[in-house]
Design a protein that fits this description.
The complex is a heterodimer of chains A (114) and B (326).
Chain A: H1 5-28, E1 33-38, E2 41-46, E3 51-55, E4 58-63, E5 66-72, H2 78-82, E6 91-94, E7 99-103, E8 111-113
Antiparallel strand pairs in A: 1-2, 1-7, 3-4, 4-5, 6-7
Chain B: H1 2-18, E1 22-28, E2 31-37, H2 40-57, H3 65-72, E3 74-75, H4 80-95, H5 105-110, H6 119-128, E4 135-136, E5 141-142, H7 155-169, E6 174-179, E7 182-187, E8 195-200, E9 209-215, E10 218-224, E11 229-232, E12 235-238, E13 241-242, E14 247-248, E15 253-260, H8 263-276, H9 278-286, E16 291-297, E17 301-305, E18 312-314, E19 320-324
Parallel strand pairs in B: 17-19
Antiparallel strand pairs in B: 1-2, 2-6, 3-5, 4-5, 6-7, 7-10, 8-9, 9-18, 10-15, 11-12, 13-14, 15-16, 16-17
Helix pairs in contact in B: 2-7, 4-8, 7-8, 8-9
Classes of the chains: A alpha+beta (114), B alpha+beta (326).
Chain lengths: 114, 326
């Protein structure tokens, strides 16, 4: 069986698609973006630009490639005590306010026992 | 030719579809739960079970079963899950000499205001606590006057057992669940290698780790002083109450991690060992063969029980490493 040029093109496209699907989360992530979600609403912020972001009940700070919850109206302040995160897969959560911040990219662990 | 394209298409579908896990974040039991597995319907079943059990064990919801029991000083009929959890709790309380105790609600409430309570109030609450002071015959439960159940030291572990059963019943081969840091490592990763579970570093934030555990089909559960606490006069007051003093435990430990095959037991033991301190914890481990442990002391020593030597790696230079054998 001889392959025509068209066949090679199709094979190349298919392989490229597979590679893109694999690499997409890594390309997109790499610790440069964080997803902030609160009660079903989600937004993505770049960690390249320093900023203070107000959400319902809390202020989130982006500084020098890191992100943290700077201030929070919640009673226990566990979220504020979590401090800065900067690496892929790291998270900050505020249970009373329903906030989860996750840095995109592959995590070094499947879970953290704490 | 068509066969080649078909083959490649199948590979693409496999890589992009099957290998990608579904992830769900749930706020429940006063914490964040992360459920990761490759079956959306089973995730729905898991979140349903979490909500159902929260309605039984939540100390903050007035309409939960435990709140109703506490309001009425007991109950004539308990739900099957409450019976089961209470039975287990009483067993672990006896076994640990009260280092784990499910009856400390008056003390937990007293210490929940981010300030050190008055000595007299602690003494007053202490009298209402203690697992030996409740009457439970398997059906009917009677609490001492002013007493209350608080299953915070076992509810998440008990829930993790229920969720594990859902995974097994649905023939799920690979899943990892974190119930606010209580980890259910079910099966192995989809590529067959063990799950990689980071062990929290008490000195770091919630995302810092001091080492890594590689485990398959295990519950990994920790108790520590570093997540829930308040500071007063330069001292740290964490949330795990020692039933003997009526105050946050003051043992030499900052963290106790249990690796075992029973979530409720792991939860109760991690609390108990944290309260006991390293010397008593090691004795307790030697007297049992149903769990392994990692203890982190205040002077930065990590004590690892012998059964974990192959699965635990310390990767934080700020800690020294020690093993304990039977």
């Amino acid at each position: 069986m001889k392959l025509a040029l068209g066949d090679y093109i199709i094979i190349a496209l298919v392989v490229l698609c597979a590679a893109a699907i694999w690499l997409f989360p890594t390309l997109k992530g790499g610790g440069q973006f964080a997803t902030i979600s609160q009660r079903g609403e989600t937004r993505e912020v770049s960690l390249k630009h320093d900023a203070q972001i107000s959400v319902d009940g809390a202020v989130i700070e982006v500084n020098n490639g890191r992100i943290r919850i700077l201030e929070s109206d919640c009673p226990d302040k566990i979220c504020v005590k979590t401090g800065w995160i900067s690496r892929g897969g790291q998270t900050i959560a505020c249970v009373p306010l329903g906030i989860v911040i996750t840095i995109s990219g592959a995590a070094s662990h499947d879970a953290i026992v704490s | 030719m068509k066969k080649i394209i078909l083959f490649l298409t199948i590979i693409i579908l496999f890589l992009s579809g099957c290998a990608r896990n579904t992830h769900e974040t749930v706020f429940a039991m006063d914490t964040v739960m992360d459920l990761t597995l490759n079956d959306g319907d089973v995730i729905d079943t898991l979140t349903g079970e979490i909500a159902r059990l929260e309605n039984i064990f939540s100390p903050t919801r007035d309409d939960s079963e435990v709140s109703r029991i506490n309001a009425h000083g007991g109950a004539d009929v308990l739900s099957p899950d409450m019976q089961n959890a209470l039975k287990k709790s009483m067993g672990y309380a006896a076994e640990t000499g009260g280092a784990f105790d499910p009856t400390l609600d008056p003390l937990v409430k007293l210490w929940s205001h981010e300030a050190v309570p008055k000595r007299a109030d602690i003494a007053d609450a202490l009298v209402k606590c203690g697992y030996l002071n409740i009457k439970y015959d398997g059906t009917r439960l009677t609490l001492p006057r002013g007493g209350g159940l608080n299953l915070g030291g076992i509810a998440k572990g008990y829930t993790s057992d229920v969720l594990k059963k859902v995974l097994v019943d649905n023939s799920i081969k690979s899943a990892i669940l974190s119930l606010g840091g209580n980890v259910v490592a079910h099966g192995s990763r989809s590529d067959g290698t063990p799950w990689v579970v980071g062990v929290a570093d008490p000195d770091g934030g919630a995302n810092a780790t001091l080492g890594t555990l590689r485990v398959s089909d295990k519950f990994v559960i920790a108790s520590g002083d570093y997540e829930r606490y308040f500071m007063q006069d330069g001292r740290r007051y964490h949330h795990i109450i020692d039933a003997h003093s009526g105050a946050p435990s003051t043992s030499d430990l900052r963290e106790a991690v249990i690796v075992c095959e029973d979530g409720a037991m792991g939860d109760a033991y991690s609390t108990a060992l944290f309260v006991m301190g390293s010397t008593r914890a090691i004795e307790f481990w030697r007297a049992h063969n149903n769990f392994e442990m990692i203890l982190v002391t205040k002077n930065h020593k990590v004590i690892v029980s012998k059964g974990l030597l192959d699965s635990f790696t310390l990767d934080n230079g700020g800690y020294s490493y020690e093993t304990c054998a039977r």
